[in-house]
Amino acid sequence: MTPPVIISGMHRSATSLLASMFHRAGLHLGDRLLEPSPSNRPGYFEDREFIAFHDSLLGHLGTSMYRESPPRGEPGPEHRQRAAALIEARHHREAWGWKDPRTCLFLDFWRSIVPEARYVFVVRRPAEVMDSLRRRGDAEMHLQYPGAATLARIGVPRFRIRRAADLWLRYNERIAAFAERHRERCHVIRAADVATAGPRVIEELRREGVPMHGDVDAETVIRTDLLVHRATPAIERYCRRSRAVNDLLRRLEALAGD
Predict the structure, then answer these.
(1) Do residues 178 and 186 lie in contact, with contact meaning Cβ atoms separated by under 8 Å?
(2) What is the pLDDT of residues 4-24, one digit of tens each?
(3) What is the pLDDT, as a whole number, of residue 145?
(4) Do the Cβ atoms of 91 and 42 come closer than 8 Å?
(5) Angle formed by the axes of helices 161-181 and 126-136, to 10°?
(6) What is the pTM of this model?
(7) Is 133 helix (H, G, I), strand (E, B) or coil?
């Protein structure tokens, strides 16, 4: 069986940009990929079958990709069978994998299904992730009440900073804990390095044994314009003051290394 390469990270962390580089370097990421959207025009490079599977698993556990609800039980035998079938349908490929931020929420589950997988995680500065969520305008990240839109036009903030920070913590805590336990199979990459030195990142991963069979054209993948390195003063202030955010950021930086 050819082991998959699993690309993941918190939403809005440049996972799509890294996946596009893997795609150009010969990693098969799916036959039916999620279409681009106004908030991600270059494309997501996400296999629709894995998206549907993770949606089903989140629903079974009574939670969602946006909130930390107490799971109701564990993945059942039907989910294990379905996950194994997804792997079985793709393992004949010489180099393959998938990209989905929600994979972060099920890392131990996937390790039990395909223990030989390699993991590539992208981590991004928390204030930048949170501000990207703000600019994308997801309803789950904004207060919803009568007259909210009108008040927003006169400067009353609707963006839920603490909820966005909790979401960043939720995903990245799982990355850190998993990568600390399984260093031999995990690679933690900074989003800034993906945007400014993508070909070098891909070549380093290739040397470390991550399978791919094509070359990466630096002119087509270095996209510093895709990452906005700023955030609102309120978001920056929250991140500076949050001990939980800063403690986790230090762990992630240690995993990313030099």
Answers:
(1) yes
(2) 999 999 999 999 999 998 998
(3) 72
(4) no
(5) 130
(6) 0.91
(7) helix
CB atoms near residue 145 (< 10 Å): 8
pLDDT per position as a tens digit, 113-147: 999 999 999 999 999 999 999 988 888 888 877 76
Per the CB < 8 A criterion, the answer to whether 230 and 35 are in contact is no
pLDDT score of 42: 80
Range scoring the smallest mean pLDDT among 106-110, 125-129, 185-189, 202-206: 202-206
Tell me which residue has tokens 């992208």. Answer: 122
Cα–Cα distances (Å) from 159 to 133, 135, 149, 156, 219, in that order, read: 9, 9, 11, 9, 36
Nearest alpha carbon to residue 235 among 41, 44, 12: 12
Sign for the CA dihedral angle at 237, 243, 245, 249 comes to positive
**Beta carbons of 180 and 110 less than 8 angstroms apart:** no
Q: Are 138 and 12 in contact (CB under 8 A)?
A: no
Residue type for position 53: F
DSSP H helical ranges for 137-190 = 148-153, 161-181
Please measure the distance between the N-terminal and C-terminal CA atoms of the chain and give it in whole angstroms.
33
